[in-house]
Specification:
By secondary structure, this protein is of the alpha/beta class. Helix content is 42%, strand content 15%.
Length: 467
């Protein structure tokens, strides 16, 4: 069980948003579920990683986004399917699995793990769930392979859109069925195309969701270069596409005093999902009612159990929390500014510019990214008497370039050499937060380092590749 400092559970204002004590308990309870899932994945060598808002919260806030309240993780399809097999055998007693294939009433395209299916106020429960009486869980999203062939990719999207349209006309109970000739023809087409046999007297909505998931899982191949979550790819008009290299590794980062795992390529992933300015907080509602436990809280109040639950929650703090965080976590890799860089910057007394490269730009602009860097080098060379440029790339930039444009790898190596020789600049191994401590301004694409420049109120300019 995770342990938190006693003051962790106090309500506080974070980024001008008040987070109530109840929410802090819910956050901690969700992290308990996360650690259960992480343990299963580590045991069976499955790769999991924080995703969507959880990922950006980890980088921007080192925890939950203050005005959000859920925890999302992702897995590449092969690991996703294996995980549910292991989870059925190894989840703690009382935990609940929600997927279309295991829970007919589950109406989402992703899966979910919850710590229970009902509210608890007993002392043992409250002790083991961070003083949170509510049902909490985490959403788990599959990332599927996208066919490299555009015609095949377009066909997949048409099929998924077609299945989705049928879901809108389907039923959960046969008594809800409305005669619909086009629907019946659509079902016949799917049966003939995929060999999938529907039971028309059963829950058709659920059966169509199972087929939808089956199509997502089976169309692409592991040799394809791109990944996506098809439902969200369609919802966001084809914007959420990722290179599979970005998920080759995971890295632990700080999160609410413990650690969670992020995909190695989280900088480009966040750029794809949230744009270049992903480090700028934008207050807004979550995709569900906030707080998520609103209805559960009303149920407790109606049963006159709310005050009892909150009292038990407070008592447990004295037993379960400590003056220091004692949390099970992974070792976080560190990055330090080299002494020789700091000494040179101090001695030369020039302005220092961080030039940040993000792999997402390669997916969006292709070869134009390299051409833009070459144009910039000429400008930097002219300013070398007054400017030191530090070229820093995200953790997967070179690998993405090598995979997408192998013939440009040597050109990029030459560019880095020119940064050193012709511009008198510095080439860093990777981007990191603490560049803001030695740089006067930020230029390039959005990365995690941009947040520290924002805090320090240092100039930031997002690169326009077309200029």
């Amino acid at each position: 069980m995770l342990k938190f400092p006693k003051d962790y559970f106090e309500g506080e204002t974070i980024d001008d948003f008040f987070v109530e004590s109840e929410m802090k308990h819910a956050w901690a309870a969700q992290l308990e579920v996360y650690k259960v899932v992480e343990k299963i994945c580590q045991k069976h060598d499955l790769k999991m990683f924080a995703f969507w808002g959880t990922m950006i919260g980890a980088i921007r806030h080192k925890g939950f986004i203050p005005w959000d309240d859920d925890l999302d993780i992702g897995m590449v399809r092969e690991d996703y399917d294996k995980f549910w097999q292991y989870a059925m055998e190894e989840l703690p007693e009382g935990y609940v699995i929600m997927t279309a294939s295991l829970e007919p009433e589950w109406d989402e395209y992703h899966g979910r793990i919850a710590n229970s299916n009902k509210i608890h106020t007993g002392e043992e429960w409250m002790m083991n769930n961070q003083g949170c009486p509510y049902v909490v869980g985490i959403d788990i999203f599959p990332l599927d392979h996208m066919p490299n062939d555009k015609k095949q990719r377009d066909w997949v999207l048409e099929i998924l859109a077609f299945i989705n349209s049928l879901i809108g006309s389907s039923w959960e109970k046969i008594s809800e069925r409305v005669p619909n000739e086009k629907f019946d023809q659509g079902i016949k087409f799917l049966e003939e195309t995929f060999g999938f046999e529907f039971y028309m007297e059963g829950n058709m909505s659920n059966q169509l969701r199972i087929l939808y998931d089956t199509v997502c899982a089976s169309i692409g191949k592991e040799t394809d270069d791109l990944l996506c979550n098809y439902p969200l790819y369609i919802k966001h008009n084809g914007k959420h596409v990722f290179h599979k290299i970005w998920f080759d590794g995971v890295t632990p980062v700080e999160y609410e005093g413990t650690t969670i795992l992020l995909p190695a390529g989280f900088d480009p992933i966040m750029s794809v999902c949230y744009g270049e300015n992903f480090m700028v907080p934008i207050k807004g509602g979550a995709s569900h009612d906030y707080p998520f436990y609103k209805e559960q809280r009303e149920m407790l109040k109606e049963g006159k159990l709310y005050d009892l639950a909150m009292s038990a929650s407070q008592k447990i703090l004295d037993v379960s929390s400590s003056d220091e965080v004692i949390a099970e976590h992974n070792e976080i890799p560190t990055f330090e500014i080299k002494d020789e860089w700091a000494t040179r910057i101090k001695n030369e007394n020039k302005k220092v510019l961080l030039y940040a490269l993000n792999s997402a730009s390669l997916l969006k602009y292709g070869e134009e990214v390299i051409k833009k860097i070459e144009r910039n080098i000429r400008i930097f060379a002219e300013k070398k008497d007054e400017l030191i440029v530090i070229l820093a790339e995200d953790a997967v930039f070179s690998e993405t370039l090598k995979k997408m444009y192998p013939r440009l790898t040597y050109k990029y190596d030459g560019i880095k050499a020119k940064i050193r020789k012709e511009c008198g600049g510095i080439v860093a191994d990777r981007i990191d937060y603490n560049f803001a401590s030695i740089c006067d301004a930020y230029y390039g694409h959005g990365t995690r380092a941009m947040g520290e420049f924002l805090k320090a109120k240092k100039p930031i300019m997002i690169e326009d590749v077309s200029i």
